[in-house]
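Action item from last week, closing it out:
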Amino acid sequence: MDPLFFVATLFAALNVILLTGLIYLYARILRKTRAGYSAGLLIFAVLLFFHNIVTLFAYTFMGTFYSDQLYPVLAVITVCEFGGLIALIKVTL
């Protein structure tokens, strides 16, 4: 496996883990406050979670269909998403 493709797959898996934590946090906040903003964040996190599950599946089982030239782009996308999720967790806590 190409190292950049491995990085993309690894960070997609890390994104799933981070989003699981965010979903838990947002659901807990929503139960306490019933705020519409928290409901929106929960919906956002759930949809992004499903996106990352599909992405992880595609990288794992359909990686041979991707061109080698896409690997840097896929790695950058998943690493940037990871950074955004870290920032979102930081402002949530």
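Closing note: The mean pLDDT is 95.
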